[in-house]
Amino acid sequence: MKNSFPEDRYWMKEALKCALLGEGLTNPNPAVGAVLVKNGELIGKGYHSRAGAAHAEIEAIEDAKKRGISVCGSTLYVTLEPCNSWGKTPPCTQYIIREKIGRVVAGSPDPNPKNNPRAVEVLPSMGISFSWELLDEALFLNRGFYHRVLTGKPWVIAKIAMAIDGSLSAGVGDERWISGLPARTLAHKLRMVADGILIGAQTARVDNPQLTIRLVDKRYKVQPWRVILSLSGKLPRDLTLFRDAFKERTLVCVRMPIEMVLKELGSREVSILLVEGGAAVLHEMLKEGCVHEISFFLSAVIIGKQPLNVNPYSPANLSFPFALVKPSWEKLGEDIYCHGLLEKGSKFLESIRIEYASKG
Predict the structure, then answer these.
(1) How far apart are alpha carbons 238 and 142 in whole angstroms?
(2) Is the pLDDT of residue 2 over 70?
(3) Residue in 213, 163, 208 with CA at minimum distance from that of residue 187
(4) Secondary structure element (H or E) that encloses residue 198, with its range
(5) Residue 57: active-site member
(6) Which Pfam families match (predicted)?
(7) What is the pTM of this model?
């Protein structure tokens, strides 16, 4: 691995800005951004907009060409190690070699087993300098992609909306009475990055939710799978989830162990699963150690509904508290939002950094 330069971090953050434009839109592919720099000047930029479209590296190269600038000898900053495998598009390493890029800097590794050998090995063998400028934000952006390609299961986000009396929100279907518009908008942004949304059967019966994306721009977004966990399989057939335009994107899992559900969703290329309730489902997912990330909304209301630590299927509470790693707090109108990773999620991302970014 070649030594990095002071300007590398700046340009990698510019590439990250590009990558974020594709967040939630590229599954089953990762979200990636890239910028090309020559003689200290930006000459091209791009991002992967959706599966099947050109990858970020190619977009950046083509952008430079449209500007009439040769990319030969330039430095490519890309938020994810370039791919070296065939999919719907050729390997990005081929383009990089063909266009005589002089140096490649990656913001995170690509552990996809299909990349064999990886770009970190291929490019230096062709005389192209390769180095890392790792960004935590770049690792986090593709947490779902990493988890699915390495484990066959999605990364799990537990979304919890709670009143100040400890009750969970009044329900997925009527959160408008609990949270203000800023909090509800953020909740729909979470749905934008998810490929599946999971609830329990009782939540489906009582709230009759849509589990669709609203309040945010959803262009090019494929409707996430809507998953119902049920013990009996007996659900009203007039539920919105069975009748609307996305009814083919509704799955009912009857008496399936959580682990089996996650494997099934992974086989359907669900990279990020958003668990929205109710209390029993959230409790079970936490107890089974399936959750990687928490998005918690606190509203200054009293609603007197079931608290999180009550599980109607088991008298046992959680055996120990779950501490968030480096939690962040934000005021959203009259609500408070807390976000963080659980130790499981934090350790997984750190293992990606240690195991796959050590080469080079």
Answers:
(1) 37
(2) no
(3) 213
(4) strand 196-200
(5) yes
(6) dCMP_cyt_deam_1, RibD_C
(7) 0.92
Binding residues for Zn(2+): 55, 83, 92
Strands of the sheet containing 75-78, edge to edge, are 41-47, 33-38, 75-78, 103-106, 129-132
Look at residue 360 in the predicted model and tell me its pLDDT: 58
Active-site residue, from 7, 41, 57, 133? 57
Whether the CB-CB separation of 327 and 339 falls below 8 Å is answered with yes
d(CA 69, CA 61): 9
Q: Which CATH class is domain 152-350?
A: alpha beta
Domain ranges of the chain: 6-141, 152-350
Write out the binding residues for NADP(+): 161, 177, 207
Strand order in the sheet with 272-277: 250-254, 225-230, 196-200, 272-277, 155-163, 293-299, 335-341, 325-332
Output the six-digit token pair for 30: 């990762």
Which 8-state DSSP code applies to residue 353?
H
Domains 6-141 and 152-350 are alike in CATH topology: no
Task: For the domain made up of 6-141, give the CATH fold.
Answer: Cytidine Deaminase; domain 2 (3.40.140)
Rounded Cα gap, residues 227 and 249, in angstroms:
8
Q: Going by C-beta distance under 8 Å and a sequence separation of 6 or more, which residues neighbour residue 159? A: 187, 190, 274, 275, 276, 277, 295, 296, 297
Distance of CA 349 to the CA centre of its chain: 12
Give dist(CA 13, CA 60) in Å, integer.
15
Binding residues for substrate: 191, 203, 211, 214, 276
